[in-house]
Amino acid sequence: MYTDDAVPDYSSATGSFEQLAMPLFASLYNFAFWLAQDQAAAEDLVQETYMKALKGFSSFEQGSNFRAWIYRILRNTFMTSQAGLKASTFISLDAGDEGAPAPEVTPRTAETPESLLLAHLERQKIQQVLEQLPVAHREVILLCDMEEMSYHEIGLALGIPIGTVMSRVSRARRAMRKLLAASNEGAAQ
Amino acid sequence: MSCDLWREWLDVYVDESCTAEEIAAIEDHLRTCPPCTAATLARLQLKRLTRAAAAGRYGPSPEFRLRPEFFALLKKGVSEDGNLDRKPLWKLRWVQAVASAVVALLIVLVSISAWMRHSARDQALAELLDLHVATTASANPVDVLSSDRHTVKPWFQGKLPFAFNLPEPGNSSFKLLGGRLIYFGHAPGAQLLYDERKHQFSVFVLQENPGSTPPATGVTTSRQKGFSVEAWSEAGLRYVIMSDSSSSDVHDLGDLMRTASHQ
What we know:
The structure holds two protein chains of two kinds.
Chain A: H1 17-21, H2 25-36, H3 39-55, H4 66-79, H5 82-88, H6 113-132, H7 135-146, H8 151-158, H9 162-188
Chain B: H1 3-14, H2 20-32, H3 34-54, H4 68-76, H5 93-137, E1 144-145, H6 149-155, E2 175-184, E3 187-196, E4 199-207, E5 220-224, E6 227-234, E7 237-243, H7 247-261
Antiparallel strand pairs in B: 1-2, 2-3, 3-4, 4-7, 5-6, 6-7
């Protein structure tokens, strides 16, 4: 299996394909699964991404951002796949506000056994919410919060301007809060 | 700015994508606005929980492997269309090494060539300087002793395979003393001797020959062991003037010679 050990600096990457691409295997697979929501589809997506990336590696500009480059390949591969096309028909990218502002998630200040249990429950809830998000919102949240990419890097990976990244992150978080609030209300009843 | 507008910025703030000025403005507001501070903390917590919930959530099955075609291609190191993988040709190390070696060799060759040209020029000037010094030291410095250019010039007829003009004396302070036949670089040439305020000037008129005459383009002036030297080429002939006088005097005589050669 391939691990994330010795991950190079991807913001200005130089090196062989193996050195740059293989440490990203686990992250790419995880991202692929989050997009496709299916193990077989995620595996196909990763296979195709690595093959395309290797064939196109001569076009990768050494010194530029390799992580954004290969994530973009994976994301474009997904968007042109059957699952991606199906998912994209249900979303309206950067549409207007999704209704009234969602309530904020109440912050906790100290970690206690109870709070850890709540955190575990909340984690499951967040996973469910992420799965419910439209792909355009899910991918931007995953790149921003899970992969900790900068807005600039997300723009490179998704092929969109930084201003669009900013507004899409904001809308995606609002949608998450709304879904979490709905989930909390359902649990309380 | 109202809290609604500040809220628009809170996501950018927790994602650390603000400029320093924007951070300062947001933090100024947060210090005075508990609801926005709570909203910021909620966003930070949601961000942290999202990372914890999503990162490493899914892994491939233990049997999952990238296809053998991928590794075959990786091992081959070339893409399917036959192009070199990874780097353009000029980025390959061996190409860079060969290019560096070629550049270094060219630099060495050019340097040697320049040094040899410079060395040949210095040697030719040194020989002419010896002739000038020997002439001025001689009790019989010239073969034809005359201040009349119409006597000196015809004297060279039949002795030289070329002809040249001598300047009109006019109001010039340069006085022609005479001329002599010399051999320089296995070829005959003329040496004219002029006098000006007791300084003697040798004017060498030689056939242009890159192998034996001091090569240069245009009029060049220099100092050789305290002597002023001016040289130029014209109509296949090489002119070199030498004297222990000043460079400006040498240049004045050069101007006279150049004017005469155009007549």
